[in-house]
Amino acid sequence: MFTISRKRRAVAAVGAAALAATTLAVGAWSASAGQDHRNREVDLQLLAINDFHGNIEASSGLTHPVDGVNVPAGGAEYLATHLAQAREGERYSTTVAAGDLIGASPFLSAVFDDEPTIESLNAMGVEVSAVGNHEFDAGFDELNRIIEGDEDFAGADFPYLGANVVDEATGEPVLDPYWIKRFPGGVRVGFIGMTLEGTGDIVSKSGIEGLEFLDEVETANKYAEELKAKSVNAIVVLLHEGGQPVAEDTGHDCESLDGSGVGMSGPIVDIAETMTPLVDIVVTGHTHQEYVCSVPDPAGHERMVTSASSYGRVFTQIDATYNKFTKDIVRSTVTGSNTVVTRDVPADEAQSDILAEYGPLAEEAGGRVVGYIAEDIKRGATRAEEFPLGSLIADAQLWNTADADAGGAEIAFMNPGGVRADLLYDQGTPGEATYAEVFTVQPFANYVVTIDLTGEQILEALRQQLPGEQRSTTLTLQVSEGFTYTWDKTATGADQIVADSLRLHGEPIDMDRTYRVTVNSFLADGGDSFTVFAEGANRLFGELDVDAFEDYLAEFGTQASPIEAPEPGRIDVVS
């Protein structure tokens, strides 16, 4: 169980007191009203997705378990049909999202600046979304273009909400903080949208200059009160922050409501426990997990918290009763479930038309073969481990910047979150690695940057991988060939990174010597809270990271001698 901060407890107490006063007033009013029960209640339906990441195509790599068996899942053609079928006969239905709809997208969407995904979401009836961290991948100006459109692109038909994204000079939100859905008969539901407070630490700082990301609970409480003042009492938060599912019988912080036996733990629990009781439902994302569960609000009332996995493979359906007299959701009636987006339904024609328009163009641009691989080269099961594809990318960046006039690099580090897909042997023609596949692995358009770091700074960067003030979970930097060290997990704190174990080609790292180190521009800006890299001097910017990877595959991955997955062992883990 996460410990609730004093600050959030105080905020929660004020919210609970406000709700208690409101409840007493409503109770007195309802006692004298005597309206017909059937006429004052309607059935609401919310359909929710999160972390779509531009996965409009029904690729063979997208699967999801159904009855213990992985089946093909996702694809905009099938997601749209599932959503349309769920809406049938529902007068009070709306479709919402919790961010990361774009960014870190497959080539088909990314090569067109995610415009195909926005067109897809428009066509499938998404009515509102929170922003997530990946909406800022290309910077705030590009996000505004995606929202507003330009002379060649119509933009999003739905509002992107960012209540906690503010101008640091004025403190005012730079995006709409909330949106009110107006159903027939005067039924109104307010949606507050936010990204995680830590967004500034996990996106390139150059694209968010002048922006600040505020506390989620304080922000939600503020705008819930504003909605209440407008007599909008039914309130849903769309939040791009989440948790991790855990088995209920092993201890959990969120009681399963869908019969799955899965609870949930993580940052969203603290947020949900302390957010004002004025909020009825919390739809989440970011962690790419799947849960429908209940967390008590500060008044002790159960409140639904949901997440629908990722990539459009799952959607959440939430049903609730809305009382026209109180203008609020009847909390005790809220139910929810997650549905797998199977492909045994008809393909939606509008989505098929979008794919038919962009598919051939993307195939022409991305179909060229850039190199050959001998086997699958994959990411890790988590971001807390060494994995082959991360090692390969680090090798590519070192090779690309090793010459003196290219940077003179001796070591390269790669952030695990920047590796977005596996490089698979049988993705298309066996062994061929196409530009589209390589781009999908590294879709962020970061540059390779070579900097000066001392041995002491390299040690500190490795220690910044560990949980502590800067992060709650381990992030393992992927390292280039020739650099090794020992990670002793039996030790505590910073001592887990064994200082005298750092080696470069077998020679001890000199803590006082300056080394030339290559990272991508995200890390060079201190991204993922690796602040040491931001201290690096004598910066030399090179080419795009995806181009460096392409060049490496072309040089070393020939048809006669394809590239094999790097062997593990650059990091010696003691446990």
Can you describe what's shown?
- A 7-stranded mixed beta sheet has the order 8-9-11-15-17-16-13, with helices on one face.
- The radius of gyration is 25 Å and the shape is globular.
- It has 15 helices and 30 strands.
- Helix 10 crosses helix 15 (545-556).
- Residues 1-36 have low confidence and may be disordered.
- It has 575 residues and is an alpha/beta fold.
- A hairpin with a 4-residue loop joins strand 18 (314-323) and strand 19.
**What is the strand tally?**
30
What is the CATH level 1 assignment of the largest domain? Alpha Beta
Helix content: 25-40%
Strand content: 25-35%
CATH architecture of the largest domain: 4-Layer Sandwich
Question: How is the secondary structure organized here?
Answer:
Blueprint: H1 6-33, E1 41-49, E2 63-66, E3 69-72, H2 76-87, E4 93-97, H3 107-110, H4 115-124, E5 128-130, H5 140-148, E6 160-161, E7 165-167, E8 178-182, E9 188-195, H6 199-202, E10 211-213, H7 216-229, E11 235-240, E12 244-247, E13 255-256, E14 262-265, H8 267-274, E15 281-284, E16 290-296, E17 302-308, E18 314-323, E19 328-340, H9 349-366, E20 369-372, H10 388-401, E21 411-414, E22 432-434, H11 435-441, E23 447-454, H12 455-463, E24 478-479, E25 483-488, E26 503-504, E27 507-508, E28 514-520, H13 521-524, H14 531-534, E29 537-544, H15 545-556, E30 571-574
Parallel strand pairs: 1-4, 4-5, 5-6, 9-11, 11-15, 15-17, 21-28, 25-30
Antiparallel strand pairs: 1-18, 2-3, 7-10, 8-9, 12-14, 13-16, 16-17, 18-19, 20-22, 21-24, 23-28, 23-29, 25-26, 26-27
Helix pairs in contact: 2-4, 4-9, 9-11, 10-15
